[in-house]
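Sequence, please.
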C-alpha cells in the first residue's frame, strides 16, 4: 500500500485548451533576511516576516500547477532576499514549475534606527516595502515600492497667516524600476530630504521645537514634494524609471491633497534633459 503510485492529477491534460496567465499562491507569510547596501552603512541584514505572492503561467494543455512547490522553494533553505537576488528567485520558480513566466511579490516592514535632531534619542522608524519581480522568457524586471511618511507644511498658509501655518503628516510613495544595486536606504533618505521635515519615533521637547521650526522654514505643496523627489531620482543610475505620489492628510480639511508623477516607463535621458532645460531657463531669467 505504501509503495503504490499516487495519481498526479495536476499534470493530466486539459481539454479546454485555454492557457492560464498567472497561477500560484498568495498571502503566504514567511520569515526572511533582507539585505541592503549603502556606502555609508555598508551591508545591513534585517530579519523580517514578509508576505509572499508567487505566481507562474500554465500551458493550455496542462490541468494544474503544483502549488506545494512554491512553499518548498521558501522552505528549502534560509530565505535571504535583496533587490539583486530577485532574478535568482524567479529563475528557481520558473524552472521548478516548468513555466516561461514568473511573478514574485514580497511585502514587509523595513525598520531604520534614527536619532532625534537635538537630544539624539534613538528610535525605530518603519517603512512599508513592496518588491515585485517579473520574469518572462528569461527577461526580468524588478520594481521596488517604498512608502515614506514625512511632514509637509503649507506654503500658502504660511504666507497668508499672521502667525502659524497648517501642517500634516504625508505619505510619499515611490515605485522604481530598479537596477540590482538599488539601495532602499538611499531612496528613503532622498525622500525625507525633500519633505518639509522627516519623522522620528521619539522626540524630546528640544527636538519637537527643532522639527517644528524646520518644517516652518521649509514649506512644501504636495506638488513640490513629487517634483523635488523626481529631480533627484533622475540623477540616480540605479533607477531606470519611477512613479512618485504624495498624499497629504490635511489638518484643516476632511480630505487629502494628492499629486503624482508617473515616469515608470519614460526614458531617464528624456527626464534629465527636461530638468536641464528648466535649469538653463532659470539661469537665463536670473541674468
Amino acid at each position: 500500500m505504501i509503495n503504490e503510485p499516487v495519481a498526479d492529477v495536476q499534470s493530466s491534460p486539459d481539454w479546454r485548451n485555454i492557457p492560464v496567465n498567472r497561477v500560484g499562491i498568495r498571502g503566504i507569510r514567511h520569515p526572511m533576511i533582507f539585505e541592503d547596501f549603502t556606502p555609508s552603512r555598508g551591508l545591513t541584514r534585517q530579519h523580517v516576516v514578509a508576505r509572499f505572492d508567487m505566481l507562474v503561467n500554465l500551458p493550455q494543455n496542462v490541468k494544474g500547477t503544483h502549488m506545494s512547490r512554491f512553499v518548498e522553494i521558501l522552505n528549502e533553505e534560509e530565505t535571504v532576499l535583496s533587490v539583486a537576488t530577485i532574478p535568482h528567485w524567479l529563475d528557481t520558480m520558473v524552472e521548478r514549475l516548468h513555466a516561461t513566466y514568473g511573478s514574485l511579490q514580497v511585502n514587509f516592514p523595513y525598520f531604520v534606527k534614527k536619532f532625534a535632531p537635538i537630544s539624539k534619542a534613538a528610535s525605530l522608524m518603519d517603512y512599508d516595502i513592496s518588491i515585485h519581480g517579473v520574469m518572462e522568457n528569461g527577461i526580468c524586471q524588478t520594481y521596488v515600492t517604498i512608502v515614506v511618511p514625512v511632514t509637509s507644511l503649507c506654503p500658502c498658509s504660511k504666507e497668508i497667516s499672521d502667525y502659524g501655518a497648517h501642517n500634516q503628516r504625508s505619505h510619499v510613495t515611490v515605485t522604481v524600476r530598479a537596477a540590482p544595486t538599488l539601495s532602499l536606504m538611499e531612496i528613503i533618505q532622498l525622500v525625507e530630504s525633500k519633505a518639509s521635515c522627516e519623522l522620528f519615533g521619539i522626540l524630546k521637547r528640544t527636538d519637537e521645537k527643532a522639527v517644528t521650526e524646520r518644517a516652518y522654514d521649509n514649506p512644501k505643496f504636495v506638488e513640490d514634494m513629487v517634483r523635488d523627489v523626481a529631480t533627484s531620482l533622475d540623477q540616480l543610475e540605479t533607477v531606470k524609471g519611477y512613479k512618485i505620489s504624495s498624499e497629504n492628510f490635511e489638518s484643516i480639511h476632511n480630505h487629502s491633497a494628492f499629486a503624482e508623477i508617473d515616469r515608470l516607463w519614460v526614458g531617464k535621458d528624456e527626464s534629465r534633459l527636461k530638468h536641464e532645460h528648466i535649469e538653463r531657463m532659470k539661469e537665463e531669467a536670473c541674468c
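The two ends are 91 Å apart (CA to CA).
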